[in-house]
Write a structure and sequence with these properties.
Blueprint (H helix, E strand, L loop, with lengths): L2 H11 L22 H20 L7 H11 L2 H11 L5 H12 L10 H19 L3 H25 L2
Length: 162
């Protein structure tokens, strides 16, 4: 992003509302109209926080270990595996949201295959959609099921290397 574009965004985003606050442009978000990459952006943030909080039940002192472990769990590779593990739990509407995210035009990092990256984007879009539509029970259910899928797969992988 060019600096001029960034300045325009800042000026627009942080416009005073006249009551010593910041103008809020969008009060109600229509999740179905949002770009799937925006949904994935929110879903990624939610899953990061979910995983970090969930890991506190295992470790509370070693922040570097928590960070390393959580970074691996939320990687595209493991999120793609999580989606495959929870897919049968999903409604047709949820699968549609996943497909919108998976099919969104984006660029895969080198740490995952293109298919894994697109699958993880779909997974994140699903979580973002649930979060923004305030379907908190369903969001928690799918995040926990995903965490369980990833945990079991990681343990299986670790044990097979011994």
């Amino acid at each position: 992003m060019k600096f001029e574009h960034f300045q325009k965004l800042v000026d627009m985003m942080f416009e005073p509302d006249g009551d010593n606050g910041i103008l809020q442009r969008y009060r109600g978000v229509d999740v179905k109209q949002l770009n799937p990459l925006v949904l994935a952006y929110v879903g990624d943030a939610y899953f990061h926080l979910y995983v970090r909080t969930r890991l506190l039940s295992y470790e509370q002192c070693k922040v570097q270990a928590l960070h390393s472990f959580s970074a691996q769990i939320v990687s595209a590779v493991w999120q793609a595996k999580a989606y495959r593990g929870i897919e049968e739990m999903l409604t047709e509407e949820e699968k549609g949201i996943y497909r919108r995210g998976r099919n969104a035009k984006s660029h895969a990092p080198r740490s995952a295959s293109v298919a894994e990256y697109h699958a993880s984007t779909g997974f994140e879009a699903l979580l973002g959609s649930l979060y923004l539509s305030e379907q908190n029970e369903r969001l928690y259910e799918l995040a926990e099921a995903s965490f369980q899928v990833i945990s079991k797969a990681m343990m299986k992988e670790i044990r097979s290397k011994k």
